[in-house]
Amino acid sequence: MRRPALGLLGANLWYIRQVISVLWQLIRPAALVLAAQGVFLALTVFRPGHHALHQMREAPPMWLSISFRIFWYGSVVGAPGVSLFDAVIYFFAAYCGVQRTRLIRTGVLTAAATSLVGFVVLFAAAAIVTPSLAVALFAKPFLFLILSAYLVVPLAYAVLVGVLAGNFSRWVAPHARRTTALPPA
C-alpha cells in the first residue's frame, strides 16, 4: 500500500522503520538494563590503566580464580554478554516477545536484538572512556576480527537462550489466548 506513494525504496525504508519500531517496543526494558550494564562495565573495566600489568608474586589457585569469576561475573568465559545476568535478561526479552506474538522466532529475534544493543552500548561506552581502543581498531584492522568474535559469541548465546525461553513460554501457557467474552444474546 505504501509503494505507490513512496516508491520502492521509500516503501522498503518505511517497512524497515516499522519493524525496528515494533522490535524496540518488545526489547526496550531488557535493552535498557543491558545498556546500563554496558556503561557500568565500560566505566569499571575499560578505564585507562586498568589493563596494566599488576605486580603479583604468585597466582591464586585455579579453583579460587574460577570461583571468583563465576561469583563476580556469573561466567567462566571472559567475554561480555555471556554471564548468568545476561542470560536472565535475554530470557526475559525472549519470554515477553513470545508471549506477545506466540512465535518462538520472535523470542529468538528479541534475545538477539537485546544482545546486539548491549554490545553496541558497551563498545560505544568503552570507546568514550578509552578512545585509544577505538583508534586501535583502525590502526590494526585485525582487531576487527577479534571484535567480531566478541559480537558473535554473545549473539549465539542470546539465540540459544531465546530458543529456550521461547519453548518455555510456549510450554507454560500453550492455550493462553486473549479471548473476549461475547455479551449474552
Can you tell me about this structure?
- Helix 3 packs across helix 4 (104-129), helix 3 (84-101) crosses helix 6 and helix 4 packs antiparallel against helix 6 (142-172).
- Helix content is 75%, strand content 0%.
- It is built from 6 helices and no strands.
- By secondary structure, the protein is an all-alpha fold.
- The chain has one domain (27-47, 59-172).
- The protein is globular, with a radius of gyration of 21 Å.
- Mean pLDDT is 80; it is low at 51-56.
- The longest helix has 42 residues, at 3-44.
- The chain has helices at 3-44, 62-73, 84-101, 104-129, 131-139, 142-172.
For the report, how would you describe the main beta sheet? none
Count of alpha and pi helical runs:
6
Low-confidence stretches: 51-56
What is the global morphology?
globular
Number of strands: 0
Q: How many domains, in number, for the residues?
A: 1
Q: Kindly state the mean pLDDT as a whole number? A: 80
By helix and strand content, what is the structural category? mainly alpha
Task: Specify the helix fraction band.
Answer: over 70%
**Computed Rg:** 21 Å
Rounded to the nearest angstrom, the distance between the terminal CA atoms is 39 Å
H/E series:
HHHHHH
* Percentage of residues in strands: under 5%
